[in-house]
Specification:
222 residues, mainly alpha, elongated, 2 strands, two-stranded parallel sheet
Length: 222
């Protein structure tokens, strides 16, 4: 006979939310074709004077550094020490998210295996399981954030940098000395935010729907 526990509901819900959040954020970071698709769509070669190959190389080398490579480079594009220092800050955030996704996913798997082996299960709070609460909580927060950002993305972009890079202005690139910014237009970052939101909302909706269907099935079985 399985025993239920409210604290397991909380822990499981938190881990599910963290896996979904970090995984959604990691998607545009790890999926390089997402950026490649923007090169021609945004006419970057025509707008910047760099070839597609030069743009791809610059992006790949910059992203390699942000994901742990020792040397910073942007191909034939010019870069400054100030620009590099910003990408060093970005590197810390990217690695935190990617490793966070891996760690929380492993912890969630360990928890689920332990629960199965010890015949424990998370309690249903107000008739809902941890997946529902993870999806509902995370979805509500990010729909609110998305709504505010949609009102003024430029302002949201500035606030984002103020929060995650407090007291720093090195994210304000000079195109003459840090040419990477020429191939990273703000529209690309907006699309990254949209992708993250779509993945989050889809994941939250799937969690909520699964919990509702599971609850109905259990009631029918009873």
């Amino acid at each position: 006979m399985k025993t239920t526990s409210k604290w397991l509901t909380a822990v499981e819900a938190i881990l599910i939310a963290l896996v979904l959040l970090s995984g959604s954020i990691a998607a545009p970071i790890l999926c390089r074709p997402f950026y490649y698709a923007h090169i021609d769509a945004m006419d970057l070669p025509e707008r910047t004077g760099f070839t597609r190959e030069e743009i791809v190389t610059a992006f790949d080398e910059m992203l390699d550094y942000c994901l742990g490579a020792e040397e910073f480079s942007t191909g034939v594009l010019k870069w400054s020490e100030s620009g590099k220092s910003h990408f060093t800050d970005v590197r810390g955030l990217f690695l935190l998210d990617v490793y966070g996704f891996g760690v929380t996913a492993v912890l969630l798997i360990i928890l689920l295996v332990w629960m199965k082996c010890t015949h424990r299960t998370s309690a249903r709070l107000a008739g809902r399981g941890p997946g529902f609460w993870a999806g509902a909580g995370l979805g509500a927060v990010f729909l609110l954030i998305a709504g505010l950002a949609a009102l003024d993305f430029d302002r949201a972009f500035t606030v984002f940098h103020a929060i995650f890079f407090p007291g720093k202005t090195n994210w304000l690139f000079d195109p003459a000395t840090d040419q990477i910014i020429l191939v990273l237009p703000q529209d690309f970052f907006r699309n990254c935010a949209i992708l993250i939101l779509v993945l989050l909302v889809a994941g939250c909706a799937a969690l909520i729907l699964y919990d509702i269907l599971r609850g109905r099935k259990q009631r029918q079985a009873d």
